[in-house]
Design goal:
Largest sheet of chain D: 5 strands, parallel
CATH class of chain D: Alpha Beta
Strand content of chain C: 25-35%
Helix content of chain C: 25-40%
Number of domains of chain C: 1
Radius of gyration of chain C: 12 Å
Chains: A mainly alpha (110), B alpha/beta (124), C alpha/beta (92), D alpha/beta (136)
CATH architecture of chain D: 3-Layer(aba) Sandwich
Helix content of chain D: 10-25%
Number of helices of chain C: 4
Distance between the termini of chain C: 23 Å
CATH architecture of chain C: 3-Layer(aba) Sandwich
CATH superfamily of chain D: DsrEFH-like
Oligomer: heterotetramer
Number of helices of chain D: 3
Structural class of chain D: alpha/beta
Shape of chain C: globular
Structural class of chain C: alpha/beta
Strand order of the largest sheet of chain D: 4-3-2-1-5
Order of helices and strands of chain D: EHEEHEHE
Distance between the termini of chain D: 23 Å
Number of domains of chain D: 1
Largest sheet of chain C: 5 strands, parallel
CATH topology of chain C: Hypothetical Protein Ychn, Chain: A
CATH class of chain C: Alpha Beta
CATH topology of chain D: Hypothetical Protein Ychn, Chain: A
CATH superfamily of chain C: DsrEFH-like
Radius of gyration of chain D: 15 Å
Largest interface: B-D, 18 and 22 residues
Order of helices and strands of chain C: EHEHEHEHE
Number of strands of chain D: 5
Chain lengths: 110, 124, 92, 136
């Protein structure tokens, strides 16, 4: 599977996650988000960038509880709850935010 | 009577797995409750339907399956550990569903549930 | 209450036995199963004061004969040991 | 059972389960099959379900704790980088066996900022307080 971007074929897995995190680009994120029926607002970007930075630092995508805890330290209480995150990413922040951030598909059992 | 959780981490071609099965059977014979067996690490390969055992050797897959049928004990499989070892519940080419009947596709969350509910957790 | 420690590998092969012995408390029990039954003649086991058990069928399979300080038990007694232990740690 | 109960939101709806105290004992070097990685996966999930998780590194397990390892140079996923994220999972009790470090000629310079260095005797004394002890 692949996404067409800047006249290039960007490889993805069968569910649309990028195979190489270095292929990621902000404009590519918008294309992936569109496929997910998400219009990226600044609130989305906060989470997407955060998840991507988290992965690059810790080599793992944060589970929701770790994500809310880490977000709390950065952005405060009101943005650090799963209700807020699910409003932004209805199919689950772990699934959708990581996909838009160009990260690998999280392990199925997580 | 105690409630047990059993974690199996060894493959079907390791005799240690027979020990785990013997222990599971004895638990029930001794009147204990086995909440479930959780297959993790190399233990997930016990569910591989494509494993072929010579007919004059113990077939642990069949042994687990008949244990499951007779006792109704859930046999949970950590799907993430399973997928990386060639097991799949997908039929999307080139994959072929090869997780045997009798095993339940689960995640590590099930390990949490089993071990926190059990009075005793045994890793074999 | 005590902890039941299970060792299932040969102490001449890896250090699981040693790790277990390092953390074996005075009232704990040691159970040797699978290749762990070879440890009945391991020098570190000879001097232990704790109760040591080995699964009989696992010994028979390997022609391990009865040793002074090791009691051979069957799987049913293994289950009983686990039930009466506060918890079970397997040094896998 | 521990009385510590976190108010953080649950990942998914699940039947109420009591907080159980887990010790996860790592006894294997970092690239020994997937033991270290799959142990860490289990620890993270237990913590995500608000269980009380303590990590121990003894024997060859202490090799996992050493700083400046470069797993990528042997094309191995650098799962050790995830240790730095444990605080976000509320895994705070991390114990390294000083005897094992000394035996292997390793410094007490680990990837953890606030691991506790204990003798085997001290670790032995801690074990009774856990409900479940898993080894990897």
């Amino acid at each position: 599977m692949a996404i067409e971007f800047n006249n290039q074929q960007i490889d993805t897995d069968s569910q649309g996650y990028l195979l190489n995190i270095n292929d990621w680009h902000k404009d590519l994120a918008c294309i992936i988000a569109k496929e997910e029926n998400i219009e990226l607002t600044p609130a989305h970007w906060e989470v997407v960038n955060f998840v991507r930075d988290f992965y690059i630092t810790y080599k793992t995508s944060p589970a929701i509880r770790a994500l809310t805890k880490a977000l709390k330290a950065e952005y405060g209480e009101e943005k650090a709850n799963s209700r807020y995150l699910y409003r932004l990413f209805p199919k689950g922040p772990a699934k959708q935010a990581t996909k838009i951030a160009g990260l690998p598909k999280p392990a199925r059992c997580i | 009577m105690s409630r047990y959780a059993l974690i199996v981490s060894t493959p079907p071609f390791d005799n240690k797995t027979q020990t785990a099965l013997d222990f599971a059977k004895q638990l029930l014979q001794s009147g204990h409750q086995l909440l479930g067996v959780f297959f993790y690490q190399d233990g997930v390969t016990n569910a591989n339907a494509f494993v072929q055992t010579p007919s004059d050797e113990t077939n642990l897959l069949h042994a687990w399956q008949s244990f499951q049928q007779q006792s109704d004990t859930p046999l949970h499989l950590c799907i993430s550990a399973a997928e990386r070892r060639g097991l799949t519940d997908s039929n999307e080419a080139p994959l072929v569903h090869n997780i045997s009947e009798g095993f339940t596709i689960s995640g590590l969350g099930e390990l949490v549930v089993l071990t926190s509910k059990a009075d005793k957790t045994v890793q074999l | 209450m005590s902890i039941l420690h299970i060792v299932r590998s040969n102490g001449f092969n890896d250090d699981r036995l040693q790790q277990c012995l390092n953390l074996l408390a005075e009232n704990d029990k040691l159970l040797l199963i699978d290749d762990g039954v070879y440890n009945v003649s391991h020098p570190t086991c000879a001097s232990l004061t704790q109760a040591i058990f080995a699964i009989d069928s696992h010994c028979q399979a390997r022609n391990i004969v009865e040793q002074g300080n090791v009691k051979q038990i069957n799987i049913e007694e293994f289950v009983n040991l686990s039930e009466h232990a506060e918890k079970v740690i397997t040094w896998q | 059972m521990s009385s510590s109960q976190n108010s953080a939101t649950n990942l998914q709806e699940m039947s109420p389960i009591t907080v159980t105290r887990y010790a996860i004992i790592n006894t294997s070097a970092p690239f020994d099959r997937l033991k270290g990685k799959e142990s860490l996966d289990a620890a993270l999930i237990l913590a995500s379900y608000e269980m009380d998780v303590s990590l121990f590194f003894i024997g060859n397990g202490v090799y996992q704790t050493q700083a400046n390892q470069q797993a990528e140079s042997i094309a191995h996923k650098d799962y050790l980088a995830t240790f730095k994220a444990l605080e976000f999972y509320d895994i705070e009790d991390i114990y390294l066996c000083q005897d094992s470090l000394t035996e292997r000629g390793l410094a007490t310079d680990s990837v953890f900022d606030d691991a506790q260095y204990l003798s085997a005797e001290q670790i032995k004394a801690l074990l009774p307080q856990f409900d479940v002890v898993l080894t990897f």
